[in-house]
Each structure stands twice: as structure tokens, then as C-alpha cells.
Amino acid sequence: MKYADARPISTHTIGPNQISTIAILDGGVPVWQFSADTGLLSHFGFDKSFSVSKVTYGNLPKNFNQDAPNSGPPEPLETGHYYVVSVTRGSGSQSYSVVQVNQDGSLSAYAAQPLIGNSYEICCNLGPDFFSSAAPESPDSAPQQ
Fold first, then answer.
1. Number of domains in the chain
2. Dihedral, CA atoms, 69, 74, 78, 81, nearest 10 degrees?
3. Which long-range contacts (CB under 8 A, 24 or more apart) does 100-108 make?
4. How far apart are CA 4 and CA 133, in angstroms?
5. Quick one: average pLDDT of 14-43?
6. Which of 3, 10, 20, 25 is the most exposed place for a label (fewest CB within 10 A)?
7. What is the pLDDT, as a whole number, of residue 46?
8. Is 27 contained in some domain?
9. Cα separation of 47 and 41, whole Å?
């Protein structure tokens, strides 16, 4: 999923020298998704290897089908945007990362845990320029009406 912006909500210490940040990601557009090809032959006992040690964005691994986009390669990653990468293993376990595309085209990736809606707990010690806004929102910074 691609997100246009990320806003920090709060931070907390989770261990020695480890600060976790809860953030809301704005937007949420699917850009690339694929799944194991568990077609007819796999139901008849033919083994296929679904073990993947590395995935390069836009290169579909062997024995997998692309689910999104419907055809063609995924759109290029956009500078300044955030991407949530999720992996579901054959065992059913899932892991998540939040990736930011930096101005120089490099990537900053952090382990994440989905919370409610588009909010994630992002671990750990985010870089100082990870968010476009400077500081986490606090109840004292809410506009007066």
C-alpha cells in the first residue's frame, strides 16, 4: 500500500535505547500485490517451491501470481511517499514494514505492527526526517474553537 503522508501521534520507550512511534498513514492505495500460485497441480500433490529469500520491487518471484495491478508492472516508487510492505508466510504468520522513499531515492525501512485503521506502531528510533511534520501531536496542540 502506498501512503502520501505519515503523522506521528505518540512515542514511547520499549527497551534500552529503543523508541517506538505510533503514526497514522494518510492515503492507502494498493500498488503491488502477489500471492503463491496454488493452482490445480498443487491440489494433486505436485510440490512447488514458494520459498523466496529476496524480492525486488516489480519482479514477480517464480511460482507466484500478480494480484495488483491487474496487468503490467507496478508503478514506480515515489519520493516522499510511504509504503507498507506485508508478508504472509505459509505458516500464516505475518510481518509488516513501513518504508519511506527518501529524496535521494534511498529507502528507510522500519518494522511495524498494524493497529487500528491506518495507524501503525513503527519500531524503532525513526530518523529525524521520517515525518513531514516536526513533532507528535499532543492534546495541548489542538486548535482552540
1. 1
2. 40
3. 100/6, 100/130, 101/77, 103/79, 105/79, 107/77
4. 13
5. 86
6. 10
7. 55
8. yes
9. 8
CB atoms within 10 A of CB 77: 16
Q: Give per-residue pLDDT as tens, 49-95.
A: 677 888 999 999 988 899 999 999 999 999 999 999 999 887 889 99
Burial of 121 (0-12, 13-18, 19+ CB in 10 A): buried
Question: Quick check: helix, strand or coil at residue 14?
Answer: strand
Whether 96 is covered by a domain: the verdict is yes
Note down the domain range covering 26: 2-132
Q: How much is the pTM?
A: 0.80
The Cα 101–Cα 96 span in angstroms is 16
User: 25 in a domain, yes or no?
Assistant: yes
Find out whether 49 and 23 touch, Cβ atoms under 8 Å.
no
